[in-house]
Design brief:
The complex is a heterodimer. Chain A is mainly α. Chain A has a single domain (3-103), classed as Helix Hairpins (Orthogonal Bundle), CATH 1.10.287. Chain A is 85% helix and 0% strand. Chain A is built from four helices and no strands. Chain A starts with a helix and ends with a helix. Chain B is mainly alpha-helical. Chain B has one domain. Chain B is 78% helix and 0% strand. Chain B contains three helices and no strands. Chain B has helices at 3-25, 29-54, 61-82. The chains are: A mainly alpha, B mainly alpha.
Chain lengths: 104, 91
């Protein structure tokens, strides 16, 4: 296997392992969602670059479309989960709560 | 199957295991949904690595479908949680 693609595959793996460790170790739901939701599409994109170098142009096009779909959809999903945490778990509210002030 | 692919699969399994721990003990529902999302992305990464390992682009068609279905599921659960009433502040 090409050393460049090996590097990208290992970098993506390291990124998703870091995201999972953040999902376990952090204290508040906001921090956990932030760690897992922001790092995981980066992990898929890094691993996808490595795989695209290996499989050639036809596979690279499919990987680009999949990475684009992930980048477009996942931040929206994480944002909606943040709002859901805010509306169901008030004990984790931050000190400056602008969403709760606007809703009141 | 080379050493790099074995290391990558092991790392993906570790990530899925961490997400499973958070899935079973997560205090809020959003934690569990995010754990399932992380599992899904690890699965997508595994499909990409498998395609690179076997030089076979057949299963890459699945990636977009999995991404869109996972987004739809997360959106449905978030909407369901939003509709719950916010409990009164203890203050």
């Amino acid at each position: 296997m090409n050393p460049v693609s090996s590097f990208f595959l290992l970098a993506g793996t390291a990124m998703i392992v870091l995201a999972a460790i953040g999902l376990i170790k952090l204290k508040t739901p906001y921090a956990r969602l932030h760690a897992a939701g922001k790092a995981s599409p980066v992990a898929f994109i890094l691993a996808g670059i490595g795989a695209a170098i290996e499989v050639g142009w036809a596979g690279a096009a499919q990987l680009i479309v999949a990475g684009g779909a992930l980048v477009v959809t996942l931040p929206i999903a994480v944002h909606l989960l943040f709002r859901a945490v805010h509306s169901t778990a008030p004990e984790h509210d931050p000190t400056l709560d602008e969403l709760g002030r606007d809703r009141a | 199957m080379s050493v790099v692919v074995l290391v990558v699969y092991t790392g993906l399994l570790v990530a899925v295991g961490c997400a499973a721990v958070r899935l079973f003990q997560g205090p809020t529902l959003a934690d569990r949904v995010m754990a399932l999302d992380l599992m899904l992305i690890a699965f997508m990464t595994g499909i990409a690595v498998d395609a690179a390992d076997r030089q076979d682009t057949t299963f890459l068609n699945l990636l977009v479908v999995i991404a869109v279905i996972g987004f739809t599921a997360t959106l449905a659960v978030a909407t369901f949680m939003e509709r719950r009433e916010r409990p009164e502040d203890p203050s």
